[in-house]
Write a structure and sequence with these properties.
With 462 residues, the chain is an alpha/beta fold. It has 14 helices and 16 strands. An eight-stranded mixed β-sheet has the order 3-4-2-1-7-9-10-8, with helices on both faces. The protein is globular. It starts with a helix and ends with a helix. The structure holds adenosine-5'-diphosphate (ADP), aspartic acid (ASP) and magnesium ion.
Length: 462
């Protein structure tokens, strides 16, 4: 009784003073980090040596794509195709389990957990398969990876407590995270399990405002980590992946890239938004708003420094380059734009009506060029824009984004960037929207060359 009163008193204190868990970290591991039995063992070792933290896991690499493929068969009303793909996936998991568990009891439990998920998917045989069904199926990837990790840790005598993401991760009616709900539910789950050695939860999956299973978009486990970090006021949010931090250019297209040691939140946000796949674009904001440092680390090389993202001081340097694909540029020319106040408002309203956001924008006296990364409503947008001016469209473009501390009083950055690309046709240039980026629009066919030229000029021999 007295214990209950004391407990209630502390709950009350926490609510009033917003005291949370500042000594805890959130550690998120992506698909490749848990992609095989050996990787799961490595991650288990890593997380058990680092204290009582919350560990967020993605699905094992390849699983979410396979679940998308299975859903595709079900959309096309081909349950046989779906079942064949489920069976192949189940075999892969059985092999992982064989290599992961030495104890028969845990092996049995792991096999049962995987079969329950696979049976759930195999049972789909509806004539009409909906987006809600697909979300139920996609959530299974993270449920399986976390089940395997928890059972493996239990086998190793680590008291790993599962915090089911579906019990606390929720979005509101605008599909935005419901921060208050997440915080309250998560804190009460943590308080219910004080004896844990560490906690495990699923990235990516959530429930929506109507209680249906949903997700935070592909790659969204980073977002889960950041939302949890904000909810518990974590000491740090660690994103563990297959590379030693944010590199100064996209390593998939440029050789010899190197990790950037420190980034300001704003720089990281620009890079993530403009194509640096290592970080999901949504991940930065909750960390920035709560001033929680984000560290990007390499599971395959845990001792590497990685990248620290925080309120970093200005360095007056260019830090990194990224590229965002599938961009369409639209130019609207109006002979009377100079005198026609309200012209830009009308243009923007059209994009708003068609729920399409604009990435880049440049204006001149006679017209405006904007870019979009979502062509779904392009025909309707063009129809409406033609009422206000002459419209031209360039498809298959790429935004190249140069990021750093680019405050306008600094000299020479623009010249360096433009000079690097002097051989490449540039459709748009945008600078001054923030202190952190210069964006250039080029053809898709020039992307790799542009990235390499920028690396040569900006980072080699410096
Ligand atoms: P995870 O599955 O762990 O979430 P991702 O595949 O989403 O990992 O992100 C890591 C990958 O991001 C790297 O393997 C790398 O190819 C890619 N990447 C793209 N741009 C960058 C960059 N600037 N720095 C580091 N990695 C990058
Ligand atoms: N498993 C999900 C995906 O592949 C989420 C993630 O990995 O972040 O998109
Ligand atoms: Mg990722």
């Amino acid at each position: 009784m007295i214990a209950d009163v004391i407990e209630l008193f502390f709950v009350f204190l926490r609510q009033i003073f917003n005291i949370r868990f500042p000594s805890m970290k959130v550690m998120k591991f992506g698909g490749t980090s848990v992609g095989s039995a050996q990787r799961i063992k490595d991650v288990a070792k890593l997380i058990t040596s680092r204290g009582k933290n919350i560990v967020v896991l993605s699905a094992m690499s390849g699983t979410t794509n396979t679940l998308v493929e299975i859903s595709d068969y079900l959309y096309k009303n081909n349950p046989a195709g779906a079942k064949e793909t489920v069976n192949a996936l189940e075999n892969k998991y059985k092999e992982t389990i064989d290599n992961l568990f030495s104890d028969e009891q845990y092996k049995r439990q792991a096999l049962d957990a995987i079969s329950a998920n696979m049976d759930f998917i195999r049972a789909y045989n509806k004539p009409v398969f909906t987006v809600f069904d697909e979300k139920e199926i996609l959530a299974r990837g993270e449920m399986m990876s976390t089940a395997l990790m928890q059972l493996y840790l239990l086998q190793q005598n680590v008291n790993a407590v599962m915090l089911p993401a579906l019990d606390f991760m929720r979005t509101d009616k605008n599909s935005e995270p419901d921060s208050e709900y997440i915080r309250t539910k998560l804190l009460s789950l943590l308080e219910d399990n004080p004896d844990a050695d560490l906690y495990i939860t699923q990235g990516f999956v959530c429930k929506n405002a109507y209680g249906e299973i949903d997700n935070l978009q592909r790659g969204g486990s980073d977002y889960t980590a950041s939302l949890i970090g904000a909810a518990i006021n974590a000491e740090e949010i660690e994103i563990w992946t297959d590379i030693d931090g944010m590199h100064n250019n996209d390593p998939r297209f440029v050789e010899g890239t190197t990790p950037v040691e420190q980034l300001h939140f704003e720089e990281a946000a620009e890079l993530a938004y403009f194509g640096a796949k290592i970080l999901h674009p949504t991940c930065v904001l909750p960390a920035k708003l709560n001033n929680i440092p984000v560290r990007l680390l390499n599971t395959m090389c845990p001792e590497a420094k990685g990248t620290l993202i925080y309120n970093a001081p200005a360095t007056h340097t260019i830090k990194a380059v990224a590229a965002k694909d599938n961009i369409t540029a639209i130019k609207i020319k109006s002979g009377r734009m100079l005198l026609a106040y309200g012209f830009l408002r009308k243009v923007f309203e059209i994009f708003e009506t068609h729920r399409t956001s604009i990435d880049m924008i440049v204006t001149s006296e006679v017209g405006v060029s904007v870019t979009i990364d979502n062509e779904r409503n392009l025909p309707a947008i063009l129809d409406d824009l033609k009422k206000f001016g002459t419209v031209t469209v360039d498809k298959d473009m790429v935004i190249i984004c140069v990021v750093g501390d680019l405050e306008w009083q600094n000299r020479g950055f623009e010249a360096e960037v433009v000079n690097a690309l002097k051989e490449i046709p540039v459709r748009m240039i945008s600078y001054g929207g923030s202190n952190y980026n210069i964006s250039l629009l080029v053809r898709k066919s020039d992307k790799v060359r542009a990235l390499n030229l920028l690396s040569d000029r900006l980072f080699k021999n410096k």
